[in-house]
């Protein structure tokens, strides 16, 4: 499959040099041929071939691998077409003899196929100009106001508000969901049905708003007693103006003195205008994707809050309508569509400091011109406050979500590999930062000043180059490390353990063969699959075969090791029953080359299901299995990965033995945190040993009941591994999902035995880290393995003053061993702006990244704090962020207005989704294991994954013409948006539902399900029949494409309207009130407004 040139032989490294990642090489002398004039090495910084190509609409760029035969299909086409363009000619044409560069070979096909941007917007949305230049971006004012009223002294008459004193109606509409406060003493947690969403009753079409009569806070009326306190009976969150379209006034601040800010004119409906890049006012597209809503009286009504702006006094207007129109509050769908339309067509060029990239939901290409691609690093803000006081005031977390080994679409070049020969990569003597485009060469090029610590360093003779009249090295654009945001260095032996180049890694498959595993058909399925899957282990360069060796273990209460040496006629089994003191009974013949031992391995995989077919053993061990795998890698002196396939709570007598401690009664108590904590410290100790060995553990769980995921996932979590969970696994139902995940997991490129360090320029430093890794000190993130899906999230704090001129720099250096055993350093650089005005911070934020960070922060918080405290902390922080904006950046206006920064207008809706998630507010049907599982999954998710996970995509299938095969525009995740004459797909990266309305046309039912009526559709169906008609093909194609975009296979569930499965589906309609007590978007927005007002008063 490859594509690229194989790595050149590692040059001899004669000069032993001191330290591993910590010390600078001491001598530069003696480099041969070092000053050869460098020449261009090809097109890396020119247009990448095919760069401008746009894929045909609806066609994914990489074939979906799900359901495909192992790897061959997934890799073949990509290798030939996608990567094929980077052939010989792409590699440098004559580098200096000590600088060799090549494309990083062998990356997997970009599994997340990118769909062509959907352009099916109403015409009014299309005539946007080209994306703004960077200057425009920073000049834009981003104020979005949900204008409101000054809370009236008394509710205007005749407006349909519940009477202020109507305690019953208010409390009924706000069933004190636990979101806004603790459950009042003696009150049961609202897990039940009290929310007006009776599970099996016909759906109520307009629940969220009508139910919550927005009693405006009458003067002297009840207010929230405290920010986090319980809601009193009868209290409601008044204050948010009801009936306001999302009128927005956002002229440039410098252009208008306070008080002259324009409001949207009262009168007839405004044409929908987009304003994210332009000053002006903005209106949410009114129901453009939802069901037709009829004339919106709201739009025609005056703005009661207008007087507050000064420029349009007008007479006080009565509040015109009963409810807050959901179309008038910020819509995720609209924001996503706008960004796609505005930023999806041009490549994102990274040459400018502090640029906010397009959203993760936008399909765009990246051109590296000195900063790392947003595929590698995304920040909560691209403009950092100069002082810690400002940062504290704003409360906006400063964090970067880093995906060091992110896979790229085929159109984008993998990082070049730079070989600086024996001396190794050039670094700053003091802070050890690696050479990068921001280093400043001085004294005619003989020295350079470090951009991170300002230390002046000598340039080694072999690296010397003259400067041009601008002070830039004349070879700057020929060297990746001087011109690109991301590149790799070949590491010298100093960067290797024990000063020895590593051996290629190994994979060990460790299979539970207890009764449950055999009975469910798992063992037979797995063994059958492995026979072919082993041919597709990750490879590098033009290698004919993978360098990775494999080994096999089966286990229940005891472990069975297999000798699969190629010279054997039959595999040999060795049993270790002393699980208390695990050792590896054989070295020779345990880890083998797949090709050499193919016959023996096939024979073994044929025999395993037979050998244990009649087992009655139900008990299993767990820790000793990991121990055994780790010891085997240690004995073989290599890093590697264990693939564990495990079914039950390990109750057999052995280290790491667990007991069933599941207790749902702990939910909403101070002890709830124990459900997320491991029940024994043994696994942390074990994980630490694994990390030291570079032993990454991937765990596939097949539980029929509680298995204590919180404890079993400790080792995968700390070693950079993955956990997959298939509850109540049955081959016939779950085979496709499991095999698809397994194939992807086995084939994916992994960096082993990795250490990551994030350096920063003076003034800020990395203080906190989130993800699947281990840390032994405060700076080095240790990863036994790191794959292209996993992120490490880093939070920064000030330790000094920053200045606007210099900005702030980040450099992420990942040292790792490639699949072929090559030791490399991958470097990502990113320059950010610094600001002295808070408005600049708010204008350059990225809410998706902010939510990613906040979710991880909260999900870690539940390990040590009561869940309620964690929720309250999030709400408070969000309110502080928005209140600071309101106070310092928005023009003066009435307190009754909720004003949100343009870049953060989705913060409330997304934060509400985090607060309602299963970890922070579990529904009755969510198990303790599910919560622990999701908790650890989110920890290493990237921004795109958290975005769709917390706010699922809901796609109408039958609204657009059947011939239109592009992905339909999504609608908001609310029951209100469902029409019973339509069919919808809903996905969140883990789950996939097909919802069928009860009044769907018969023809559609026939085309899609092959049955004649709605009643004949099988509820819970997981596979659609393959039928020879356009609609069927279109839906199948869409499902395939959605699956291809996600890192885990999403199993389909067909849900019929008003069927009992619908409750499950509705859980994902996140704008609605949830059964577990989570607030609707509208209610939460009102609450947030209230919190902000309290902070401001
Ligand atoms: Zn330095």
UniProtKB/TrEMBL annotation:
Would you tell me the protein name for this molecule?
A: Protein transport protein Sec24C isoform X2
Q: Does the keyword Plastid apply?
A: no
Name of encoding gene: SEC24C
Q: What keywords does the record list, in alphabetical order?
A: Cytoplasm, Cytoplasmic vesicle, Endoplasmic reticulum, ER-Golgi transport, Membrane, Metal-binding, Phosphoprotein, Protein transport, Transport, Zinc
- Compositionally biased residues, Polar residues: 24-39, 90-101, 166-176, 202-216, 243-252, 274-300
Q: Which organism is it from?
A: Neophocaena asiaeorientalis asiaeorientalis
The protein's topology relative to the membrane is: Peripheral membrane protein
Residue ranges of every copy of the Gelsolin-like domain listed in the record: 964-1035
Q: Which residues form the Sec23/Sec24 beta-sandwich domain?
A: 751-834
**Where does the record place the Sec23/Sec24 trunk domain?**
502-746
Q: Would I find Phosphoprotein among this entry's keywords?
A: yes
State the family named in the UniProt similarity comment for this chain: Belongs to the SEC23/SEC24 family. SEC24 subfamily.
């Amino acid at each position: 499959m490859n594509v690229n040139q194989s790595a050149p032989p590692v040059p001899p490294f004669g000069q032993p040099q001191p330290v591993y990642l910590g010390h600078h090489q001491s001598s530069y002398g003696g480099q041969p041929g070092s000053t050869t004039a460098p020449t261009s090495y090809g097109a890396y910084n020119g247009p990448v071939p095919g760069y401008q190509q746009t894929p045909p609409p609806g066609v994914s760029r990489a074939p979906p691998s799900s359901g495909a035969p192992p790897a061959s299909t997934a890799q073949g086409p990509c290798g030939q077409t996608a990567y094929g363009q980077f052939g010989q000619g792409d590699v440098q044409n004559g580098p200096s003899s000590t600088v060799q560069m090549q494309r990083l070979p062998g990356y997997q096909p970009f599994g997340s196929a990118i769909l062509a941007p959907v352009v099916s917007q109403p015409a009014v949305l299309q005539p946007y100009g080209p994306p703004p230049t960077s200057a425009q971006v920073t000049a834009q004012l981003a104020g979005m106001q949900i204008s409101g009223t000054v809370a009236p002294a008394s509710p205007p008459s005749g407006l349909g508000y519940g009477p202020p004193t109507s305690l019953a109606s208010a409390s009924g509409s706000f069933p004190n969901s636990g979101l806004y406060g603790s459950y009042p003493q003696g009150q049961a947690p609202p897990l039940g049905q009290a929310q007006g969403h009776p599970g099996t009753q016909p759906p109520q079409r307009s629940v969220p708003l009508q139910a919550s009569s927005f009693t405006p806070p009458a003067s002297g009326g009840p207010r929230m007693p405290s920010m986090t306190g319980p809601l009193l009976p009868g209290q409601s969150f008044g204050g948010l103006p009801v009936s306001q379209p999302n009128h927005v006034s956002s002229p440039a601040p410098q252009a208008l003195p306070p008080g002259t800010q324009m409001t949207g004119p009262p009168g007839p409906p405004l044409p929908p205008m987009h304003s994210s890049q332009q000053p002006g006012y903005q209106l949410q597209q009114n129901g453009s994707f939802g069901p037709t809503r009829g004339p919106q009286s709201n739009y025609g009504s005056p703005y009661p809050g207008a007087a507050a702006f000064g420029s349009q006094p007008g007479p006080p207007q009565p509040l015109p309508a009963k409810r807050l129109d959901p179309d008038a509050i910020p819509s995720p769908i609209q924001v996503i569509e706008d960004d796609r339309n505005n930023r999806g067509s041009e490549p994102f060029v990274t040459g400018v400091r502090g640029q906010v990239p397009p959203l993760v939901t936008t399909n765009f290409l990246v051109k590296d011109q000195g900063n790392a691609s947003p595929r590698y690093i995304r920040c909560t803000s691209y403009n950092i406050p100069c002082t810690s006081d400002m940062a504290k005031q704003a409360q906006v977390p400063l964090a970067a979500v880093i995906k060091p080994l992110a896979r790229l679409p085929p159109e984008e070049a993998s990082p070049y590999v730079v070989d600086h020969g024996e001396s190794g990569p050039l670094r700053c003597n003091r802070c050890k930062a690696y050479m990068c485009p921001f280093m400043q060469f001085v004294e005619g090029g003989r020295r350079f000043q470090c951009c991170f610590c300002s230390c002046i360093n000598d340039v080694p003779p072999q690296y010397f180059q003259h400067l041009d009249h601008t002070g830039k090295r004349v070879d700057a654009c020929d060297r990746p490390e001087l011109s690109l945001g991301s590149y790799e260095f070949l590491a010298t032996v100093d960067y290797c353990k024990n000063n020895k180049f590593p051996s290629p890694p190994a994979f060990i498959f460790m299979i539970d063969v207890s009764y449950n595993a055999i009975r469910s058909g798992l063992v037979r399925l797995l063994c059958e699959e492995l026979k072919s899957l082993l041919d597709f282990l990750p490879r590098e360069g033009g290698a004919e075969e993978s360098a990775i060796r494999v080994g096999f273990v089966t286990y229940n209460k005891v472990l069975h090791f297999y000798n699969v040496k190629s010279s054997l006629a039959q595999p040999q089994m060795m049993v270790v029953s002393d699980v208390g003191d695990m050792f590896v009974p054989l070295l020779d013949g345990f880890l083998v080359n797949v090709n050499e031992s193919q016959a023996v391995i096939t024979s073994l995989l044929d025999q395993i299901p037979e050998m244990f077919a009649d087992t009655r053993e139900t008990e299993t061990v767990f820790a000793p299995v990991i121990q055994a795998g780790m010891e085997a890698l240690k004995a073989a002196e290599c890093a590697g990965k264990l693939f564990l396939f495990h079914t039950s709570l390990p109750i057999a007598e052995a280290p790491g033995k667990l007991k069933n401690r599941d207790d749902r009664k702990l939910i909403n108590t101070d002890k709830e945190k124990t459900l997320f904590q491991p029940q024994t410290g043994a696994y942390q100790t074990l994980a630490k040993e694994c990390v030291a060995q570079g032993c990454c553990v991937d765990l596939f769980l097949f539980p029929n009941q509680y298995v204590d995921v919180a404890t079993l996932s400790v080792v995968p979590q700390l070693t950079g591994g993955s956990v997959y969970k298939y509850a109540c696994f049955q081959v016939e139902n779950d085979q496709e999902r499991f095999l698809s995940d397994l194939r992807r997991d086995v084939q994916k490129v992994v960096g082993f035995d990795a250490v990551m360090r994030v350096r920063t320029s003076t003034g800020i430093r990395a203080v906190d880290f989130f993800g699947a890794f281990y840390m032994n000190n405060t700076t080095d993130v240790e990863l036994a393995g790191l794959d292209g899906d996993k992120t490490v999230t880093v939070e920064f704090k000030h330790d000094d003053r920053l200045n606007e001129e210099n900005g702030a720099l980040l450099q992420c250096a990942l040292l790792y061993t490639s699949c072929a055993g090559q030791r490399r350093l991958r470097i990502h650089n990113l320059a950010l702006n610094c600001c002295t005005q808070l408005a600049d911070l708010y204008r350059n934020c990225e809410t998706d990244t902010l939510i990613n960070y906040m979710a991880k922060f909260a999900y870690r918080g539940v390990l040590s704090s009561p869940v309620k405290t964690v929720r309250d902390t999030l709400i408070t922080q969000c309110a502080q962020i928005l209140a600071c904006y309101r106070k310092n950046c928005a023009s003066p206006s009435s307190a009754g207005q909720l004003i949100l920064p343009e870049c953060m207008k989705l913060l409330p809706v997304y934060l509400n989704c985090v607060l309602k998630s299963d970890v922070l507010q579990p529904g009755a049907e969510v198990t303790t294991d599910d919560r622990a599982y999701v908790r650890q999954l989110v920890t290493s998710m990237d921004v795109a994954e958290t975005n769709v996970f917390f706010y699922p995509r809901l796609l109408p299938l039958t609204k657009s013409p059947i011939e239109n095969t592009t992905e339909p525009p999504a609608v908001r995740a609310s029951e209100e948006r469902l029409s019973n004459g339509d069919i919808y797909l809903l996905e969140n990266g883990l789950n996939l539902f097909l919802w069928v309305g009860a009044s769907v046309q018969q023809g559609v039912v026939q085309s899609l399900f092959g049955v004649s009526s709605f009643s004949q559709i099988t509820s819970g169906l997981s596979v659609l029949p393959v039928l020879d008609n356009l609609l069927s093909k279109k839906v199948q194609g869409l499902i395939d494409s959605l699956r291809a975009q996600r890192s885990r296979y999403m199993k389909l569930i067909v849900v019929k309207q008003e069927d009992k499965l619908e409750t499950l589906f509705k859980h994902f309609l996140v704008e609605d009130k949830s059964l577990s007590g989570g607030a609707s978007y509208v209610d939460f927005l009102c609450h947030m407004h209230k919190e902000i007002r309290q902070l401001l008063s």
